[in-house]
Model the fold of this input.
Amino acid sequence: MASNVLDSVLFRDSFGTPEMRAIFDDKELIRKYVEVEIALAQAQAKCGVIPQEAADEITAKCDADSLDFDLLRHETEIVGYPILPLVHQISKQAENSGGYVHWGATTQDIMDSAVGLQIRDGFDIIERDIKALRKILADLSKRYRNTAMAGRTHLQQALPVTFGYKTAIWLDMFDRHQQRLEQLKPRVLVGEFAGAAGTLASLGDKGLAVQKAMMNILGLGVPVSTWHVARDGFAEAVNFLALVTGSLGKIAYDVMLMASNEFGELYEPFVKGRGASSTMPQKRNPISSELMLACAKGVRQQAGLMLDAMIQDLERATGPWHAEWISIPESFVLTAGALNQAKFMLGGLIVDEEAMGRNLDMTNGLIVAEAVMMGLAPYIGRQEAHEVVYDACRIVNEQGGHLADVLNTMPAVSSRLQPEIVKRLTDPRNYLGIAPAMVDQVLENSAKLGY
Done:
């Protein structure tokens, strides 16, 4: 039985996805270790460091799936790292060429390059899901471009917006995330082969040539310098995931608030039994949003741990490196889980436009008091207009009625503005600013990135 939600039979597909877990599970990691060892042998043969026959035999016979995993686990507990126990076994697999396995390498070279391969595969999934989510958000923005609703600041109604404007802001965040991902790949997807203290001294003058050939085989970038203790690349990867899940958490928070009974403007897709309460049959809890928010909090903690792990001593670290083994897999699995929940939730989002309209009108015109003030300002000055409208708003709050009716009884207004003008000014749907145009602007920019 598992002891955490990422591997739990009960929770693992709520907080992650099978696809992402498969990239970061033990067997796949060990396959990556073997892949790196084989690439090293092939590169060294190409550069004349080891015989070609040895590289061919290592390539043909070294097989991660045939390893004794119980022995590997036992020896890893003793050594503290998995590479020496791994080399023991694949050297035997390579038979006559076993002495050439791991030639000139150090443990961290193999592990860092293998994690780089995992991150590359993980990014492929993240990128695909971001594109899918962007398409969903673009469709929502188009559909609800002109759907007026109350904009809220400090949890109070502020000015009218449109729901499409809100989703366009969400979309714009993920457009930037897609751009960030493309920009960080060359910095992050870089392999490691530098030897014991990072100088490749054991390979003489062929070290850089082997390094380049090895990275070309693996499809990773060639490092400019050794990065055994320069961990900004992996830290950037996890902090990027924290940005992605942070945006998902913001969306989740909005949806949860707007799904509350007092708002009733949004609902997650209906699936019988989903979000049900054990004691309250009427409940329809926003489960996907809750999971997205929880994942965001989890990745944020791992991002902080990765920043802490950047502080490493001298040429090889005495512990901070190990923290990455915790943070990187968990961050990728949680991010994949959050994106999966977001695609489901937003892809089937139920939007109650009538409720948005009712909430928009619930303040009897107070939400557009600014519009009246700005309409009156050319006649009596902004400050006096503010005071007149402020007094009218207080009357509505204390005595009821509609703002337009109260304003039309005030001489400062009725002597300057026709009643129909005041009525138009106090209709929230006439005070959307550039919200619809901003939706168009976001959609145009997003389309350039492609989905």
Q: What stands out?
A: The CA atoms of residues 104 and 203 lie 6 Å apart. The mean pLDDT is 90. The radius of gyration is 30 Å. The chain has 19 helices and four strands.
